[in-house]
Amino acid sequence: MRNTFIDNISLEETKPLFFNRIEKYSKKETIPTEKSLGRVTSSPVFANVSSPNFNASAMDGILVRSKDTETASETNPVTLKKDKDFLYVNTGNPVNPEFDAVIMIEEVVEAENGDVRIIKSAYPYQHIRNVGEDIIKNDMILPSFHEIRPEDIGALFAGGIFEIEVVKKPKVAIIPTGSEIVEDYRNLKVGDIIDSNSRMFEAMITVSGGEPYRYSPVRDERELLKKNILDAVGKNDIVIINAGSSAGTHDYTKSLIEELGEVIIHGIAIKPGKPTILGFIEDKPVIGIPGYPVSAYFVYQEFVKSLLEKMLCRDDEKADIVKASLSKRIYSSLKHKEFVRMTLGYVGGKLVATPLDRGAGVSMSLVKADGILVISRNNEGHDIGEEVEIKLLKPLSAIKKSIVVIGSNDPIMDRISDRIKLSLSHVGSFGGVLALKKKETTIAPIHILDSKSGTYNTGVLNKYFPSGDAALIKGIKREQGLMVPKGNPKNIRGIEDLIRADLTFMNRQRGAGTRILLDYNLEKLGIDNNDIQGYEREAVTHMAAAMSVKSSTCDLALGVKSAADILDLDFILVDYEDYDFAVLKDSLEDERVLKFIEYLKSEEFSKEIDNIPGYKLENPGEIVEIS
Ligand SMILES: Nc1nc2c(c(=O)[nH]1)N[C@H]1C(S)=C(S)[C@@H](COP(=O)(O)OP(=O)(O)OC[C@H]3O[C@@H](n4cnc5c(N)ncnc54)[C@H](O)[C@@H]3O)O[C@H]1N2
Ligand code: MOO
């Protein structure tokens, strides 16, 4: 049976319908204070003892009676008799009740007979810490519903609190569902998906102050899922059911929540996360979270995190927001509110935001994201260059360190970014040149062949930066060639074979340097594009092109050797090309760019390249001026 009806209610309208039914969580437990980090107090905590609980010297020196010192001055020093008028004391020692002040040892002149002379009077209670200076017995150390921090633990111990009553961690059951979901990565069969979401939920629940309880993936069988849901509801405070939320034939979550309790919402106007289900069974919140990892992340953030915050009376944590200029146009549908993962970086003092992959299945877009752009439901998107607000996922100080790199893609960039923080966006060589022109990137990796001169990269910069404000940082030389299945079963020899009727090709997108190299070679050989099957099909990265060969979507594609190697494909060399870094001359003074150049010139980089077949170096880091 399919779920046919899915609501499309806004996130803003949904929240009160759900959260108004959630009550403050009242279960408590007493735990050792040293184990209380991150826990939430259930009631105010009052001190058992004062700190200090005696009058204590605040300095190393002598204990005196202040009235004995009243007349002391440089011209009229006062002598204090050993054992009678003063006692030696160290910082923290109790103050003998006979005395009422401390003079620091530096201000004391010691005579040979053991007496001392002082030249300054001491006022009553000078350098004495009174009983309870820090904490007085019965003072409130922490209020209720306070999240305990390391400094709180210190104060609790000082106040004699060795055990503390805290709110119990709400128990959150995670039930991953789907017959395709497996727990082991070995022997993966076609169709198997590793259960990654429930591992992410476990960590998120822990961060939110809950106690996760993860079930093993449940096969798509209605009765089995029902049994697991009932078990989870019996033992937990919140139940998350992952996947099976949509309209598939095996999506039982909604009908089971309906059967066992009540469904409040199925379908929210957000992307990703549309088929979310919110309901209650035995008054316990039950949330059906969509299966795609990115949908799972956002639905957790919007509902489960807020739920735990509300139950634990924690402040809802609001991300910091920054304004940034968009480096790409973003379209969005009026049907939903959208959460777009973005990378951020400073280019010439301006914060630039670039969207990452928007697919709900691309969990790496969350790993790479510096922030989130929320596009509201009544908004069709944003223009290139428009100023937008981004919710930060990383501190701005970390974002300031990274260099924005927009342009052509090469697997070597990931390796460089392991050393020098790069914020990478792959738009092809020409996209990089245009981004540089518009000052939206600091570095543009390019490999553009000038078909007249047969040289790389300088031609295009001469053309686009005629006033000479660009420069080229020499990068690497890489082998470009035909990627074909292992063993080259169709016996492909070179570019000339592209017109063979038994071969289908996969091209790269317009503007990609690899495509220009292809066209250059086709022209040299006098081949017409129209004679190539698949010329119009486009992959956006070398890896995507290699993947299409690996998955038999095509017979061959043009790309770099490293991509072919990663996927264990055969490779037929076409040419070496120059993969260099275009920059604006100004940024040659940017500290981050200087570090990048230094790394290209380093022994470490040269060793790294030596280990990867298909690359060679010729003066990496050298600056070529564009006249
Ligand atoms: N006809 C329609 N089809 C779909 C709709 C729709 O409205 N009409 N909505 C789409 C949207 S949007 C989403 S989101 C998904 C949600 O699907 P389900 O929640 O039913 O989840 P599945 O289809 O079972 O899985 C989706 C995807 O996620 C993977 N997955 C599932 N569990 C895990 C896990 N524990 N760890 C990692 N990955 C997991 C699963 O294998 C699938 O690839 O429905 C669309 N379809
Ligand atoms: O809304 Mo679904 O959550 O896009 O992938």
From TrEMBL:
Residues 173-310 form the MoaB/Mog domain. It is an enzyme of class 2 (transferase). The keyword Iron does not apply. Keywords: Magnesium, Metal-binding, Molybdenum, Molybdenum cofactor biosynthesis, Transferase. InterPro entries: MoaB/Mog-like_dom_sf, MoaB/Mog_dom, MoCF_biosynth_CS, MoeA-like, MoeA_C_domain_IV, MoeA_C_domain_IV_sf, MoeA_linker/N, MoeA_linker/N_sf. It comes from the Bacteria. Its cofactor is Mg(2+). This is Molybdopterin molybdenumtransferase. Catalyzes the insertion of molybdate into adenylated molybdopterin with the concomitant release of AMP. Pathway: Cofactor biosynthesis; molybdopterin biosynthesis. Its EC number is 2.10.1.1. It catalyses: adenylyl-molybdopterin + molybdate = Mo-molybdopterin + AMP + H(+). Belongs to the MoeA family. Signal peptide: none annotated.
